[in-house]
Amino acid sequence: MRRVVVTGLGAVTPLGVGVRRTWKRLLEGHCGIVNVTERDARFKEVPCQIAAVVPRGKKEDGAWTASEWLSRGEERVMAKFAQYAMAATEEALEDAGWKPTLFEQREATGVCLGSGIGNFDEIYDTVVAYEKGGYKKVNPLFVPRLLINLGAGHISMRYGFMGPNHAATTACTTGAHSIGDAARFIACGDADVMVAGGGESCIHPLAIGGFARARSLATEFNDAPEKASRPFDADRKGFVVGEGAAIMILEELEHARARGARIYAELKGYGCSADAHHMTAPKENGEGAFMAMKKALKQAQLAPAAVDYINAHATSTIVGDAAENAAIRTLLLGPEGKQKPADVNISSTKGAVGHLLGGAGAVEAVFSVMAIEHNVMPPTINLDRLADGFDCNYVANEPQSREIDVALTNSFGFGGTNSSLCFARLGK
């Protein structure tokens, strides 16, 4: 199997547009969660009135204006998640120095981009228009703007990439699955370079209302949104929906070396599993999460003791955080792992950016690679009081400097789908 490395990064997040801006604000403890009732009066009817949104404004200020990234025609035909992904792709390709013009290069470059929900606004608006006015009120672009795989399609069309064109949609595991699947395309020889990641934008009263009815969301922090997402904290009440996108440029190792590309890290392991248990809740012992992490380390040929940092899925739900914590302790503590819980380093960045659903795994993969690049673990903000049973190092409220050679990042989704990615400094 061919080796796969990361040579470019791009992101559009609630902390800003651009990887470096997002990372800087993450380490500074900023939060992108805000009250959204001013966006739509219908949010006032929903128990959860907060979300992590991409800041609007000028590109030069690290904020989002679609026209600065897209032509008028592109903006008209693309779903918002795909727009964010396009901007993140542009940044990642620039970062990687990969803008191929030769046919052979474009043929060997593919795209793997997914979304969990996709264009929710388009579905809602079209159903309302159809009910009021019938067939003639259906936008001719309804289906193209609806299909999740069109995100990858638009990226391939803009840049002329003719390699594998793939779209995962596995709920909140989508971003991680997209990156892992893309790596396998390269490892198996189907491509030399892959644009890989995930995106989401469904900040809509009905979407958030649906999650609220499922009792998944934090509903007690409408007047203090920056305090709402609090992974591992004893007072955590649920997750906060976020939007944005993140992209990695993955590349076959010798291909990257031959063109002198900067290499951030190697993607050494990718593990997948299913809980086979419940639609929305994991097993209390985190068995599915444990299996995904174990498989990632097996592929990476690394022992649990080698893991320096885990970027947890931890969304700030009572059951989910506890199950993942149990899985991590089972994996990393023992004869082949760490000697004591305090040696296990875990943080969740969802306190700062919320839960980006289909984009979460991609954003957190980028954060994991940046942690290796800078030897810094990003903080778990709002962690004021550890819940019972949480005795590891959760990087509470302040970043921590550590030598980070190996990092795991976890993603889990409704339906019991799990994925874990293992990144390592090249040569480790």
Automatic annotation (TrEMBL):
Residue numbers annotated as active site: C172
This protein's GO cellular component annotations are:
mitochondrion
Location of the Ketosynthase family 3 (KS3) domain: 1-425
A single GO molecular function, which one?
3-oxoacyl-[acyl-carrier-protein] synthase activity
InterPro entries the UniProt entry points to: 3-oxoacyl-ACP_synth-2, Beta-ketoacyl_synthase, Ketoacyl_synth_AS, Ketoacyl_synth_C, Ketoacyl_synth_N, PKS_Beta-ketoAc_synthase_dom, Thiolase-like
- Asked whether the UniProt record includes Acyltransferase among its keywords, one would answer yes
Q: In which pathway does it act?
A: Lipid metabolism; fatty acid biosynthesis
Name the SMART domains for this protein.
PKS_KS
SUPFAM superfamilies hit by this protein: Thiolase-like (SSF53901)
Q: Name one GO biological process term.
A: fatty acid biosynthetic process
Q: Which CDD domains match?
A: KAS_I_II
Q: Which UniProt keywords apply?
A: Acyltransferase, Fatty acid biosynthesis, Fatty acid metabolism, Lipid biosynthesis, Lipid metabolism, Phosphopantetheine, Phosphoprotein, Transferase
Protein's UniProt keywords contain Acyltransferase = yes
In the record, the note on similarity to other proteins reads: Belongs to the thiolase-like superfamily. Beta-ketoacyl-ACP synthases family.
Q: What is this protein called?
A: 3-oxoacyl-[acyl-carrier-protein] synthase
In which organism is this protein found?
Answer: Penicillium canariense
Taxonomy of origin reads: Eukaryota, Fungi, Dikarya, Ascomycota, Pezizomycotina
